[in-house]
Structure formats: structure tokens, C-alpha cells
Amino acid sequence: MTAFAALHREGDPLLLPCAWDHASALALAGRGFAAVGTTSLGVAAAHGLPDGASATRGETLRLARVLGAEAFPLSVDAEDGFSDDPDAVGEFARELAAAGAVGINLEDGGGLADRHAAKIAAVRSAAPGLFVNARTDTYWSGDRDAAETTRRLEAYREAGADGLFVPGLTDPARIASLAARFDVPLNILYTPAGPTLAHLADLGVRRVSLGSLLYRRALGAALDAATGIRAGRAPDGPTPTYDEVRDPAG
């Protein structure tokens, strides 16, 4: 078991905050988070590109090369692998591993399960040390078909996935059922209206991702500060100093 895999503990799940650039990643690592992920929405939006459209392969790899040199474990959100060709996805995973990433998140986007399983198998072959978190979008898309979700997760596990991710799933009973069914960690996306981190731990979840939440909250805070200043109000909440941003290591 790799050190990153060992962070996925029953009763004490890995809380994975997701960064969108070097500054956000180092700031999160500086707060003591055991690992840092990336958010495909944040990376795409920061570059003026659409998310989920295979448009940010280059930007994602460049960020991984910057962050992979840091001391914290890095897991990269790679959308669907940026290709329909499993071999191309495997090659991208190999490049991520060479950059220093320890994990990859691959989403099926609601597409063909067999094709996604083939991508997982290709990644497993091309970058055997990379922790493959296989995501199904059955709940994220609003389909919420429990049987189809289970079928997909079983196929992805059989293809070699190290973890299984079901964003959009918030029902405690269903979460507990899936966590107990599989021998690899279940990953759930945290939502403010869903179960708390402690509740998810009790349900057997071993990884909780923050996805694009921090990026969207950062944008919200910036907008709130700007409009507040325009209205004559001083911004509230914490503001890192110039030196803290410039040199997060102190």
C-alpha cells in the first residue's frame, strides 16, 4: 500500500481539498491537510476554458508538474482523461506520475461504462503506482439509478480502480451500503447540505472531496469584498498578507 492509499482510513477519512493553482495548493498544504487535489472546474475557469470538455489537458499537466515537485501528495482531477482512447489516457497518466502526482481522478461523464473501464485498465498498466479514483456520474447527472451505479462501480473496480467516487450521492443509507459493498475506499463529494464529515466517517466513507467548492467560495468572497468596498463597507473574514501569499512556507 502506498502512503497516499494509507490516508484512506475507515473512521478517519481523507479530507481532500482541491486547489486550482500553485498558491491555493501551498496555502492548503500549509494548513496541515495530508494531501491536496486539483479541481477541473477551477483549472478550466482560471484559464477561460470549459470544464468537462477535454479542453485543459495541457493546463492540467502543467499544474501537475508545478505541484508534483512539492512535498505534499497530489491527486489530479483529469476529467475523463482528456481522450476517448484508453491508450492516450494511459499515456497522460504516465505523464502525471512522472510529474510527481500520486493519484488521478477519472470521471465517466455518464458515458459508456465499458470504455471507462478500459481507460482505468490502461492507466493501471501505464502508471501502476498511481492511485486511480474512478468516478461515476450517475448521481451527479440526476439519474440516481442505484442499480446502474453499482454496476458501473463493480466494472471499474474489476478494471483496477483503487477508489470509487460517486459525486451527488447524499443519502446516508445508500452511502453506507456502497461503502460496505466494496473492498476499496468510497469517495463522496462534500456538500454543505449533505452529511457532515463526521457522519460520512460513521457511514464508512474513506475519502471526502471538496471538489470545486473552495474555488467557488473564493470567487464568492472576492465578489463580496469588492461589492462591499464599493458600498463603503470594509471586507470581513481572514485576508492572507502579501508576504504570506508570496512565501507560504514562511
TrEMBL record:
The keyword Plastid does not apply. GO terms for molecular function: lyase activity. Pfam families: PEP_mutase. Signal peptide: none annotated. The keyword Lyase applies. InterPro entries: ICL/PEPM, Pyrv/PenolPyrv_kinase-like_dom, Pyrv_kinase-like_dom_sf. Keywords: Lyase. Gene3D superfamilies: Phosphoenolpyruvate-binding domains. Residues 230-250 are annotated as: Disordered. This is Isocitrate lyase/phosphoenolpyruvate mutase family protein. It comes from Streptomyces lienomycini.
